[in-house]
Design brief:
This protein has one domain. It is about 0% helix and about 55% strand. The protein contains no helices and 14 strands. Strands 2, 5, 6, 7, 8, 9, 10, 11, 12 and 14 form a ten-stranded antiparallel beta sheet that branches. The two termini are about 30 Å apart.
Length: about 180
């Protein structure tokens, strides 16, 4: 992303820019968007955190790609993210990157991982006895019932902040079916 997105600072309709991190292929293996293509979109829904029962929400869609002097229309909603940022047990590889998507679920938990070490000193020699990874859910990516929003990041206990390095998987032509 060209800039950080925030449920507190972003406004409905704000523009945003992203960049593809790998070539995007069609079903026949033909490159349809080369790596480093510029993607342009807009904020489709935003709500700041208003306390218990009123979570922060942030949604955006991409409507245009530019590469090699060409411009193509898109209708792409956020469909997933880097698998290491989730607690999903089901992952897939999209353009060579391990991701978790909404293909098999209505929501993904995005987590913060803390690695904890347990060292014992038998005979004055440090040995790792047990390492633990604690995963704390920080927000979710959810399918929304509103066809204009389609998907949204939702956080129950504070504001949503998506930094420039945040990786998203987009699905062109995504439709919400009830």
């Amino acid at each position: 992303m060209s800039s950080q997105l925030s449920s507190k600072k972003s406004k409905l309709g704000d523009s945003l820019q992203l960049e593809t991190v790998s070539d995007v292929h069609d079903g026949n293996g033909v490159v349809i968007l080369p790596r480093h293509s510029k993607l342009y979109g807009r904020i489709t829904y935003v709500a700041s955190h208003q306390g218990k029962g009123h979570p922060a929400m942030l949604s955006f869609a991409v409507d245009r790609a530019e590469f090699h002097g060409r411009s193509v229309s898109l209708d792409a909603a956020v469909f997933g993210t880097y698998a290491g940022m989730t607690d999903s047990k089901i992952g897939e590889v999209v353009e060579g990157i391990g991701v978790a998507t909404l293909r098999h679920t209505d929501s993904l938990n995005l987590v913060e991982t803390t690695l904890m070490y347990d060292f014992r000193l038998p005979g004055n020699v440090p040995q790792a006895v047990h390492d633990a990874r604690l995963k704390t859910v920080v927000m979710q990516l959810k399918i929304m019932p509103n066809p204009a929003t389609r998907t949204a990041f939702v956080k129950d206990d504070g504001e949503i902040e998506l930094n420039k390095e945040f990786l998203v998987v987009l699905l062109n032509g995504m439709r919400v079916v009830e």
